Structure formats: structure tokens, C-alpha cells
Amino acid sequence: MNWNTILIRYGEMSLKGKNKSKFIRKLKTNIKAALSDLSTVTMRAERDRMFIYTEKPEELDRAVEILPSIFGIQSFSPIVICEPTLEVIKETSLKVLGKNETTGKTFKVDVKRVDKRFPLDTGELQQVLGGHVLKTFPDLIVQMKKPEILLYVEIQHEAAYISSHTYKGAGGMPVGSNGHSILLLSGGIDSPVAGYMMMKRGVSFDAVHFASPPFTSDLAIEKVEDIVRQLAKFGAVIRLHVIPFTDLQQAIVKQVPSNLSMTTTRRMMMKVADQVRQDTNSLGLITGDSLGQVASQTLESLTAINEVTNTPVLRPLIAMDKLDIIEIAQKIGTYDISIRPYDDCCTVFTPPSNKTKPRVEKVAYYESFQEFDDMVAEVASQRVTTIPSQQTEDDFEDLL
Question: How far apart are alpha carbons 302 and 299 in whole angstroms?
Fold first, then answer.
């Protein structure tokens, strides 16, 4: 008996009708990239499922560890493929169950009979297999709802598939199946969670980070790189654009009253990110804003910030509590990185007080005395772009 196959069941994309083939191709590409280090892996996609084959048991175990983080998968099961005859199915079922700790466990037999020519109907086969299993494993307890062990048997025309464990997938849609955007990545707790949630909706992205050396350190950039590496584990290649923001930020502090400077800073960040969006042919901007969490995230502040762009601004955290955001950050592995004590450009230039209800006309008035648009274009063109998992240590040397 060879454990060399994984059966993957699709998530939401099973509802996509005529676009389904596009979603399946994207999921296959993402899985192939995630499993690229496994030398013997091959794949086969069908309309309602996908199969992963490997020649090495240790590679199957590694695939089981990786697959739960890939969006677009509803569930998956390591399976044994055998001849679709009753005696072989009975024998193989016992071997599959033998891989589990069975003493005192509850179990159920679930049969899917695709080949209607099979001599027993679904109910009859479940009874036969259940009785056969109990003779060999008398300590098992039959339980129809939420059993600890589910023996799944699927009868196809050419073979039978048998498994005893189903793993929950990440759900959602394959990353990249719903377009590409730009994530404004501060290095705090919120923006990585916003990126994760958009990935679950099938959106891929580049990340833009604003650095203000010498006021911010290379450790702050390393922190953001580590966040990008962690997010990339969910099935995406993420480019990081680091923006040299010092001169523009100092011009804001000099020109704009301190209680409006944070609003202008956010407006300039939005403009720079929008320029990167145009340069990369992306479709939207993603932020980690949560309504009312800080002064720059009131409805009035967000209106003033939005005024500088016609690009769709995606704010997946807008109605979430901070504790809920922290819980997701901990779950996805970005929280411990985000709380490293290295200041970002917003922290080091935080004014004593911020307007919670800035007027767009007043903000624009103070900005009109400085050629901010020229500075935006300049810093956008000076960005340093890397893929963190592939970068060398001196990639940011000129910036720092």
C-alpha cells in the first residue's frame, strides 16, 4: 500500500461557473510554486478536484504541512488508490485505518459511489465496510456525527480512493485570481493582516514601505522584509518597494501645520503608492485602516486622504476591533514581527496632536505652497524594489 497521493477539494472557486478553469489554473500554479522544493511532485487537475502525486513518503508529509496555507483549497486528504473491487477495498480500508490510533476512537464510513455499476449501493457498501472494520478493530465506536476517524471511500470507474483523514484548507480564492494591487505596509500590526485578508479574496499585491533614514533604521526595513516573507507563505510572490521618504516628510513638517501634518503625510503616501500602482499596472490600493482606531482613521480623515486618488482603496479591516485584528495577526505569524520595537516613518514624525476632522480645502491650501507632486514623482522613481526571499544584504545600501 502506497501513500503517494493527495486529493484536493476546491473552495469558493467551485461557484465560479464559466471562469472556473481560470481559477483552477491559478490554484495549480500556486500549489506548484509552494511545493517547488519537492523533487518528485506531479499534479493533475480536474473540474472538481486536484491530485498531487509524489514518489517519496517524506515529500507527501511535507506537502500536508504546506497545503493548509494555500488559498483556494476547501479540504484535502492523503489517499490510497486501489482496484475498485469489494475485496480489495475491504483489505485496503483495514490497512488505511491501521495507520491511526483506534483504541476508544469514534468512527464512521462515508462512501461516494460515482461508478453506479458497482454491485453494492452506497448504503450496502457502508454497512459491509463498517462490519468488516469492527471485526478487526473492535475498540472502535460507531458515531455518525463528528466522528474522530472518518473512513472515506470513493468508487470511481477506474479506481477506488480511500482515506482516513481530511485536513481543512484555507478556503477563499487562489491568490492572483482576482487581480493585483498595492499594499501600503507600515510594519505595524494592521497592514499585514489587511494584506492577508485580501490574499484570501484572491488578490495578489506588491508591498510599498516608506522609510525615513536616518530617522528610521535598517532594522525597521528588516522587520518589513520578514513580514513580507511571512505573508508570502500563503501562496504568493510579493515584491517590496521601499520608498526614500525623508525629504518629502521633512517638507511636510516645514510647510503644513502640525495638527494637519499627519493627514498630509497620509495623502502623500497615497499619491506615491498610486504612482507605484500605475508603474506596475495594478488595480487597487490596500490599507490597514480601521475606522476610528486613530485620528487619521476617522471618516473625515479617510475622506481627506481618499481625495488625492480615484483608484479603488480596499480597507478590509475597516469595521474590525483591534483585538480581532491582533488575533488574526497571531494566527498568521506576523504579530511577533510587527511588535519589534523599531520606529517607522509615521512614528518618528508624529505631531503632538492631530485633527480628527480635517477639512479637505484647508489641507489642500497648505499643500499648495509646496511642489509636492514633483517630490512624489521623484521619491516614487527612487524606490528600491526587491523580492525579500531573494535579496542580498546590500540591496538597500544606497537607501540607508
Answer: 5
Cell of 176: 492572483
Q: CA–CA separation, 358 vs 186, rounded Å?
A: 22
How far is residue 151's CA from residue 171's CA, in Å, rounded to a whole number?
Answer: 23
Closest-CA residue to 320 (of 179, 197, 222, 188):
197
**C-alpha to C-alpha distance for 161 and 263, rounded to whole angstroms:** 59
Nearest CA among 235, 228, 245, 224 for reference residue 200: 235
- Residue 394, pLDDT > 70, answer no
Q: Kindly list the structural domains of the chain, giving each domain's residue range(s) and its CATH number in brackets, ordered by start.
A: 5-168 (3.30.2130.30), 180-390 (3.40.50.620)
Predicted TM-score (pTM) above 0.90: no
Distance CA 41, CA 273 (A): 39
Q: In what order do the strands lie in the sheet with 313-314?
A: 313-314, 284-286, 180-184, 204-211, 240-244, 384-386
Whether the Cβ atoms of residue 200 and residue 71 lie closer than 8 Å to each other: yes
Which tens digit of pLDDT belongs to each residue from 100-122? 888 899 999 999 999 999 999 99
pLDDT digits (tens, 9 = 90+) for 181-201: 999 999 999 999 999 999 999
Contact in structure between 223 and 342 (CB atoms under 8 Å): yes
